[in-house]
Amino acid sequence: MTKLQVTLVLATTFVGSMVGGMLSERLFGSGIVQAQKPNGVNAEEFLLLDQTGKARAGLGLDDNGEVGLILTSRDGNRKLALSPDSPVVIKLSDRTGRILWSAP
Fold first, then answer.
1. Tens of pLDDT along 16-67?
2. CA dist., res. 48 & res. 71, Å (int)
3. Count of alpha carbons within 13 Å of 101, Cβ hemisphere only?
């Protein structure tokens, strides 16, 4: 290829990518989630896993959009749940779901 051909290929590639970027922003820009804050993290759920990969803590939203924090004991026998949207805000339960302690 001659220098002129290489220059034309590079110029065409550059212009095509710029035009494609502008068109994609126009066509698809409305459905894109807004950018995060510089030091922020956006998610619907956060899980804290132990060395074996078992979830020990979770912070997230349920199907109704209610927020909750769940902490599980190392052996999995007890679970502490906090949810300001629930009638029972704080609940300590055993493995079977029996409530050991709760607070409104």
1. 888 777 777 766 665 555 656 778 877 888 999 999 989 999 999 888 888 9
2. 9
3. 5
E strand segments, the chain:
45-49, 55-61, 67-72, 78-82, 90-94, 99-103
Tokens of 70: 């769940």
Smallest CA-to-CA distance from 74 within 100, 55, 91 is with 55
Its pTM surpasses 0.70: no
Residue 2, CA distances (Å) to 9, 32, 55 in order? 11, 42, 61
**How many Å separate Cα 70 from the centre of its chain?**
17
Which tokens sit at 84? 């300001």
The region, left, alpha or beta by phi > 0 then psi within -120 to 50, assigned to residue 16 is alpha
